[in-house]
């Protein structure tokens, strides 16, 4: 599935088969798509910084705002040379792992 929000805007919900309820969900998505803000990030530090600023700006709206956070592990990878195979990783080494954006 595409990360591009426009992916859904080009799909005709009347032609979706084999996924009960998906057409209805897609129609609801289209109704509210302009209320979603997709923010890309490349590392956890940037993500946390952006999240802090967003929360600060939206705080004045109180309970009338919903912040939905979603990120996928598949968005990051570890180079094969950095992978440890065959034995557990000691906790002191975990802090030295860095994820790189694909």
Proportion of residues in β-strands: under 5%
**Distance N to C terminus:** 16 Å
Which structural class best describes the helix and strand composition? mainly alpha
Low-confidence stretches: none
Quick one: biggest sheet?
2 strands, antiparallel
Gyration radius (Cα, Å) is: 19 Å
Order of helices and strands: HHHEHE
Q: If strands are numbered along the chain, what order do they take across the biggest sheet? A: 1-2
Mean pLDDT comes to 73
Instruction: Tell me the helix content.
Output: 25-40%
Global geometry? flat
How many DSSP-defined strands? Answer: 2
Number of helices: 4
Description of the structure:
The protein is flat and about 50 Å long. The protein has a two-stranded antiparallel sheet. It has 102 residues and is mainly α. The chain has 4 helices and 2 strands; from the N terminus they run H-H-H-E-H-E. The chain has a domain of 38 residues.
List keywords for this structure.
4% strand; CoaB-like_sf; Glycosyltransferase family 1 protein; mainly alpha; flat; 102 residues; two-stranded antiparallel ribbon; 4 helices
Brief characterization of the structure:
This is Glycosyltransferase family 1 protein. The protein is mainly alpha-helical. Helix content is 33%, strand content 4%.
Give the helices and strands, then pairings.
Elements: H1 6-9, H2 22-32, H3 44-58, E1 76-77, H4 91-94, E2 100-101
Antiparallel strand pairs: 1-2
